[in-house]
């Protein structure tokens, strides 16, 4: 099948619908526009998510338990906004269930992704890797960026699938990240916002995420596509309310914050970079493509 695909192929492994937008939406839109083949794999339907649309509140897990089916539609709309045409659910829609936040009883649900057999779940992803043969894969770090069990499990599954793929796996693997220097700038900039996401944080080191500048390997400038990212966010209306601080960023700072995304390099050789930190500006940097 790869003969029919573009020479550059990017695979992203995310835990729930809407995760693809916040940390990698601009990057996805950038590579779609550049002619690469972008494949998004989402591991759950996000059944345990909060609902920020009051008229849809009965969809929640404790009532009709139909939120996952609704979020499937939201994800389809978000992918359309980003230009992504190849989206899969790990093992098929509904194979794995949203586990909820760490420590909740929902972690113990028999279909919870947190309870998934690692090799079985990785096997589903391995099939996609063999089919698409991506040179680059993106997922989360060992802590799932901020500690959500499904994010941690997505990391484990992605890394195990790459291990099983061996030499036929992705040449480069990136983990989503955020530089501490950017977080510090954000904390200062957001102090004037009514919906300040850092209001209860005294110093940036207290956040459950963040990396030093020298740990960051790549800075993707997708500011030309940040409007697509915002449109994809709006597609996830049940999860991202109209008054979200994310839209405050979009309105007050535009592409400066919304359109730039950062990554750690977990596998592969770091390619040429630019700027004072010598960060890569292309995730395919150094990759040999046909």
Automatic annotation (TrEMBL):
Region (Disordered): 271-290
InterPro entries on file: GlcNAc_PI_deacetylase-related, LmbE-like_dom_sf, Mycothiol_biosynthesis_MshB
Enzyme Commission designation: 3.5.1.103
Cofactor note: Binds 1 zinc ion per subunit.
Cofactor requirements of the protein: Zn(2+)
Swiss-Prot/TrEMBL catalytic activity: 1D-myo-inositol 2-acetamido-2-deoxy-alpha-D-glucopyranoside + H2O = 1D-myo-inositol 2-amino-2-deoxy-alpha-D-glucopyranoside + acetate
One Gene Ontology term from the biological process aspect of the record: mycothiol biosynthetic process
Amino-acid positions noted as binding Zn(2+) in the UniProt annotation, renumbered to this chain: 16, 19, 151
Record's keyword terms, sorted: Hydrolase, Metal-binding, Zinc
One Pfam family, short name: PIG-L
Enzyme class: hydrolase
Gene Ontology molecular-function annotations: N-acetylglucosaminylinositol deacetylase activity; zinc ion binding
Function: Catalyzes the deacetylation of 1D-myo-inositol 2-acetamido-2-deoxy-alpha-D-glucopyranoside (GlcNAc-Ins) in the mycothiol biosynthesis pathway.
Family listed: Belongs to the MshB deacetylase family.
Protein name per the record: 1D-myo-inositol 2-acetamido-2-deoxy-alpha-D-glucopyranoside deacetylase
Natural source organism: Paractinoplanes toevensis
């Amino acid at each position: 099948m790869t003969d029919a695909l573009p020479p550059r192929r990017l695979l992203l492994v995310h835990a729930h619908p809407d995760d693809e937008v916040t940390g990698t939406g601009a990057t996805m839109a950038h590579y779609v526009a550049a002619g690469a083949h972008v494949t998004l794999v989402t591991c759950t339907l996000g059944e345990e998510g909060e609902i920020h649309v009051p008229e849809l509140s009965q969809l929640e897990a404790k009532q009709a338990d139909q939120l996952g089916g609704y979020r499937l539609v939201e994800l389809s709309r978000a992918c359309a906004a980003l230009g992504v045409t190849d989206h899969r659910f790990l093992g098929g829609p509904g194979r794995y269930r949203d586990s909820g936040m760490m420590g909740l009883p929902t972690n113990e649900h028999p279909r919870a992704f947190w309870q998934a057999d690692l090799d079985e779940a990785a096997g589903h992803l391995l099939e996609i890797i063999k089919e698409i043969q991506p040179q680059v894969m993106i997922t989360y770090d060992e802590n799932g960026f901020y500690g959500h069990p499904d994010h941690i499990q997505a990391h484990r599954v992605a890394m195990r699938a790459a291990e099983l793929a061996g030499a036929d796996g992705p040449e480069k693997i990136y983990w989503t990240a955020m530089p501490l220097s950017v977080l510090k700038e954000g904390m200062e900039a957001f102090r004037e916002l009514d919906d300040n996401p850092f209001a209860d944080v005294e110093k940036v080191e207290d956040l459950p995420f963040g990396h030093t500048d020298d740990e960051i390997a790549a800075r993707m400038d997708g500011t030309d596509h940040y409007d697509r990212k915002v449109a994809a966010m709006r597609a996830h209306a049940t999860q991202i309310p109209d008054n979200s601080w994310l839209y405050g960023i979009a309105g007050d700072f535009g592409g400066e914050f919304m359109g730039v995304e950062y990554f750690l390099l977990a596998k592969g050789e770091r390619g040429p970079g630019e700027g004072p930190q010598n960060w890569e500006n292309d995730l395919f940097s150094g990759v040999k493509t046909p």
